[in-house]
Write a structure and sequence with these properties.
The complex is a heterodimer. Helix content of chain A is 30%, strand content 23%. Chain A contains three helices and six strands. In chain A, helix 2 packs across helix 3. Chain A is elongated. The longest helix of chain B is centred in the first third of the chain and has 15 residues. In chain B, helix 3 links the parallel strand 6 and strand 7. Chain B contains three helices and eight strands; from the N terminus they run αβββββαβαββ. Chain B is an alpha/beta fold. In chain B, the strands form two sheets. A five-stranded mixed beta sheet of chain B has the order 5-4-3-6-7, with helices on one face. In chain B, strands 1-8 form a two-stranded parallel sheet. The relative contact order of chain B is 0.19. The termini of chain B are far apart. The interface between A and B is large, with 44 and 52 residues.
């Protein structure tokens, strides 16, 4: 028969050897579940109500987007990848105003059935061309 | 004079402070973790190269529009005319309000314009078209 050893005064210590493992597991859990969620997008400022003012028509460039996603810049058809160069050229030809911003106002007009994706694509290209004055015209009914 | 011979250095990295380091990392991730609170509608926003980060999250209100044309503001499905009073209310309490429009890429511009017109009525002119990085 085995001799039962009597334990003398068990010491009240919690083993901490596995503490790093536990903490690692927690760390990995939070690493995996963390989503640093940031809002991103294209900022725009909508026009004020009743704030209509006259602009020299020469400084306006009309960009039309139809329901099929085809683009017309000042009555000339353009492909999506051409928009940037065309707008860049127009911006340069009109020069800068007193604030050092391009004089040209790009007016985007869509149809009611134009897809939002096409609109953002065109807006993106116009922004990439460096246009700062972008206006949104009401869609044709 | 006798110098004690130095013992050979052992190639051990001290790991005594390892738990502390990991704890610090753990606390960092615990603090920054936001359990994805999904409030809104399932939308796939369009991709754009000029996508910018919004400078703040505090002054942002969201309008969700999915491809079926449903509009959601503050967890509620709303119709187009309801947008104006809601946004006017929000604007009254926060003049620096930015409206983040989370619109699905398949939505038609007619609806987008209707929403924008309501936002103009509510005087919330600063908007943000939510997009993805291209």
């Amino acid at each position: 028969m085995a001799i039962l050893k009597r334990r003398i005064g068990g010491q009240g210590e919690i083993p901490t050897a596995s503490l790093p493992d536990i903490v690692f597991m927690l760390l990995i859990f939070f690493l995996v579940t963390t989503t640093i969620d940031l809002d991103k997008g294209i900022p725009m400022v909508l026009p004020d109500r009743g704030g209509e003012f006259k602009v020299n028509p020469e400084n306006i460039s009309n960009v039309l987007i139809n329901a099929q996603g085809q683009v017309l810049i000042d009555d000339e058809p353009a492909e999506i990848h051409q928009i940037r160069d065309i707008i860049k050229g127009k911006l340069q030809s009109r020069g800068l105003d007193a604030d050092g911003k391009p004089k040209l106002i790009v007016s985007i007009k869509t149809e009611r059935s134009t897809s939002y994706n096409d609109y953002i694509t065109v807006l993106d290209e116009i922004k990439r061309a460096g246009a700062t004055k972008i206006s949104i015209a009401e869609p044709s009914k | 004079m006798q110098f004690a011979k130095k013992s050979k250095p052992t190639g051990d990295i001290p790991t005594a402070s390892l738990p502390d380091i990991i704890f610090m990392l753990l606390i960092f991730f615990m603090v920054v973790t936001v359990f994805k609170e999904f409030r809104g509608l399932p939308v796939l926003t369009p991709a754009a190269r000029t996508t910018e980060k919004l400078e703040t999250k505090r002054n942002v209100a969201y309008i969700w529009t999915d491809k079926l044309g449903r509009i959601s503001v503050d967890d509620k499905i709303v119709s187009v005319p309801e947008i104006e009073p809601i946004m006017a209310d929000k604007f009254a309490t926060n003049r620096r309000l930015v409206i983040s429009m989370k619109i699905d890429k398949d939505v038609e511009m007619g609806l987008v314009t209707d929403i924008q017109e309501k936002l103009r009525d509510a005087y919330t002119l600063r908007v943000n078209y939510a997009t993805r990085f291209k």
